[in-house]
Amino acid sequence: MPGADLKVGHRTMDSGSNMAEQKIKFPVFDYQGLPLLFALLIIVGLYEISADLTFGIIAIFLGAFPMCIFLFHRKYIIRIDSSDYIIFGQEFTENFDIKNRKIPISDLSITAHKSSGTDSEGNSYTNYWLKIKENNQTIIKTHDYDIEDFDSAPNFIKRFAPNWKESLKSTLPELFEIEHIISYNQKLMSIDPEFNPIKTDEKPVENIFQAEIVDGRLHGYTTDLDDAGRLEAYVEYCLGLGIKDHKAREYARANPESTIGKTDHKKSPTIYGMVFDEDGTTRVETKKKVYRVEYKSWKNLPSNYPSNTEGDWWEEK
Predict the structure, then answer these.
(1) How many CB atoms neighbour CB 164 within 10 A?
(2) The whole model's pTM is what?
(3) What digits encode the pLDDT tens for the residues 89-110?
(4) For residues 233 and 90, what is the distance between their CA atoms, to the nearest angstrom?
(5) DSSP code per residue over the chain
(6) What does the pLDDT look like over 1-50, one tens digit per residue?
(7) Which of 76, 92, 83 is nearest to 23 (CA)?
């Protein structure tokens, strides 16, 4: 398991300070199954050293040297208290710091993506990746693991499971907030000499329902049917599943995304802006398109959605 020594630490910086340090370590390279080869070389070397000293020493060295790099060479992120910057660096064990530098959090972003393919035996696979970028330049790339991936694993595996995203959400929650994501994207847009944005009123508009913001992108569903037609299509679909007539309409309202063939799932590109109209409609703007979400069409309201229990919804708290 690459980078299984995920570490989130909290410690006092010095005897006269109460500043808490949060540290996350990442693998420098994606070794895949190479550590098994390193271990095999070490075992072969130990087995052969009595018969052939030179061969044994060479095999042990070829296994031990890269194994040490795999075990101890790490990139890391440190955040002190709620500072507006991180310390990004590399180390070889806790006692030997190779290099480090400060990076403002405003220059950071996090992206998740997947790559799919087929192996030599014809089996399909999907890899999920997590990238941390500084002004659109990747500084960390690693496999993206979810806590649920290890639900059935033994306890000793769970202890070392590298759940990068959960640790980053704790240490750098800003990177997952839509306000930070929009601000970061707008900054990149302003400094990119090749960026030629289409005017907002010239972009095509698409209506989205069952909408939610996930990792800085809009997820939801689209259809050509109006609300009444959509509901009837859902009811018909639910009846086809064998749901009783008196429960079909209730079930359909709760599970509109389940109507295969009547809706298309959408995942937007990077979001550059969100505008909240007084009628409750949200316009989510990307580079080439605007997605329109009515108030009732949100599955989960975004964190930056204006609201006020004492007044109209658009009056911000």
Answers:
(1) 22
(2) 0.66
(3) 999 988 889 999 999 999 999 8
(4) 56
(5) -TTTT--EEEEESSTT---EEEEEEEESS--TTHHHHHHHHHHHHHHHTTT-HHHHHHHHHHHHHHHHHHHHEEEEEEEETT-SEEEEEEEESTT-EEEEEEEEGGGEEEEEEEEEEE-TTS-EEEEEEEEEEETTEEEEEEE---GGGGTTS-HHHHHH---HHHHHHHH-GGGGSHHHHHHHHHHHHHH-TT--PPPGGGS-EEE-EEEEEETTEEEEEE-SS-HHHHHHHHHHHHHHTT--HHHHHHHHHH-GGG-BTTBEEEE-----EEEE-TTS-EEEE-SS-EEEE-GGGBSS--TT----TTS-TTS--
(6) 344 344 444 444 444 455 577 888 887 876 666 878 888 988 988 888 88
(7) 76
**Domain residue spans in the chain?**
8-176, 200-297
Reading the block at residue 190, the tokens are 């302003």
| Distant-in-sequence, close-in-space partners of 36: CB < 8 Å, separation ≥ 6 | none
